[in-house]
Structures are given as C-alpha cells and as structure tokens.
Design brief:
5-stranded mixed sheet; alpha/beta; transcription; 295 residues; transcription regulation; single chain
C-alpha cells in the first residue's frame, strides 16, 4: 500500500479521533482507512491507536511518532513541489479564518488565485478561535489582532478598521447620540469573548472608554451584524463587513468622528521550513491583493 497515503490517513485520524470522519474527509471507505492504519502499524511494528466502539485515541507510541509523520508529510509536499518542472502550482492548501472575513473578503480573493492556478485546491476552515495550526493540519491562518500569536510567524496583509453602526429604525426610535458617553444609555451588541463590555474610542489625540450595556452578545461578528440590521442596537463592526450596508443605507455610522482602535489582519503559519511553493505563492498573492483592493 502507498505509505504516503497511509501516513496522511494516520495524521488525519489523530485529529478526528474517528475512522468514519477521516473516511469522509479523505473521500475513501471506512474499511480502507482501517487497512491503511493497519499497514502503518505493520510497517512501524508498533500499535499507533487505541480503538474502542466509541472512540479512537493515540497510544503513547502513536503520540511519539505523530510529529515525525507530519514532518515527513510536509517534506513530501516540498519535494513534490520541487520536482514540478512544469512550473505550475498544485496541491491543497488548508486555510483557517473567521466566518465574517471568510465569506466577505477571502472567498472573493481566492477565486482569482484559483482561476490562475487550476491545479490548486483550497480548503477553508471557518473558526473564530486561534487554531493550533500543526494539530489541525492548517497551512495558513488569517487572524485579526493587535499582535500576532508569538508562537507563529506572522505577516500583516491589511488593516482592520471598525466603526459603530446601527439601523435607521433603531436610531429614529431612541435618543440622539452626540458624544461617547451617550452610548451607555443605549442597547449595544457585544462580543461574548470579552468579560467586560467597554468600548475604547479615539478622536485624533483624544481617547475615551465607555462601559456599555450589552443585553445581546455573540461570539461571531456576522451574528451581531444581522442583529444590528434588525434594529437590535449599536454594534462595533469591521468596515470590511459593513461598508456595503452603510452605502446602501441599511446601516448608519454612529459618532463618525470617534473610531474604535484599528487592528491588523495577519496571515500566520507555523514554520517557513518545508513550506510548499503553492503556500508561498498564496501568501504573496494575498498580501498584494489586500494591499491593492479596497473593502
């Protein structure tokens, strides 16, 4: 049996903890997954996985060799790229990003890249948490933060600026907002990952922090966007997500002279070592695309 495929199957089962889930992800039958795992164990002469009727988990030996197997797979991808004398980019790139940035900005961006490179496949993992890239077999993560994870290599590809917005129906049904302190008297929509709902705003050299009342919270920006569109209150939203609604009049910017703090949009990866030419090309492409494409 193909040892490289067997290694990919083993690395995937280590993530999913399920032969059935790996079979679905790799588009093969469950018996074939079992055969590849048995072949890996036979070649290495060790038991890699504990199997029960409910779950699959790594043995101590399996944990010990998992990173070596992953490194071997990365090296195999690199060698494949170097051996590609046609100069065409190929292979699969796994990208992790937030739902809001994924559907509003990333999907339109990668369509052009994929059109230019028909042998490249891209798998997008939508998640708002910071993933363990190696553990999840993610090649690149796009994250919005004031500073990148120090354990990862990061490159800033764009600036994420935000605005305060609300629907016209909400604004006409409540008191006028003329200064930051007025926000404390309004319904606000908050990110539930924050223990305290304090909005930090700046106007030129002036800064002000306001404790706001958030009766509705969510862990994802698009949920709060649609709450604002439905008149639920005020929301801080990234301009990459709400500019279209401001232009259409479905949302209005509140306190336009006062801005939330900007953050950077980073493309993150775990190591430059064994990076495939396709991944390198995609990083360069995204950097150029977002530098030249306004929201």
């Amino acid at each position: 049996m193909d040892r490289l495929i067997a290694a990919k199957v083993f690395a995937d089962v280590a993530i999913t903890g399920s032969f059935t889930a790996t079979a679905d992800r790799l588009d093969m039958s469950r018996p074939m997954v079992t055969r590849y795992i048995e072949a890996m164990e036979s070649w290495l002469n060790i038991r890699l996985l504990h199997r029960t009727t409910r779950r699959v988990s790594l043995t101590t030996a399996g944990e010990s060799c998992l990173e070596e197997v992953r490194q071997w797979l990365r090296q195999a991808d690199t060698i494949t790229g170097l051996a590609n004398t046609s100069g065409k980019l190929s292979g699969t790139v796994r990208l992790a990003t937030s739902m809001s940035f994924g559907f509003s900005q990333l999907v339109p961006a990668i369509q052009q890249f994929m059109s230019a490179h028909p042998d490249v496949n891209i798998d997008i993992d939508l998640q708002d948490s910071v993933a363990d890239l190696t553990e999840s077999q993610i090649d690149l993560a796009i994250r919005i933060a004031s500073a990148p994870d120090p354990s990862l290599i990061g490159k800033s590809i764009a600036v994420c600026d935000s605005v305060i917005v609300a629907s016209p129906q909400y604004l006409t049904s409540t008191n006028e907002i003329t200064k930051p302190d007025d926000l404390a008297e309004h319904l606000c929509l908050g990110y539930k990952n924050f223990q305290q709902h304090i909005w930090h705003l700046r106007k030129g050299n002036s800064q002000q922090s306001v404790a706001v009342n958030c009766r509705l919270t969510a862990n994802e920006a698009t949920a709060l966007l649609h709450a604002a569109l439905n008149g639920a209150g005020l929301a801080i939203q990234p301009t990459y997500l709400v500019n279209r609604y401001i232009k259409s009049g479905e949302l209005k910017q509140v306190l336009p002279d006062w801005k939330p703090n900007d953050m950077n949009i980073y493309v993150l990866y775990s190591s430059r070592k064994y990076m495939s030419p396709t991944v390198r090309a995609l990083i360069d492409y995204l950097s150029h695309y977002f530098a030249s494409t306004p929201w």
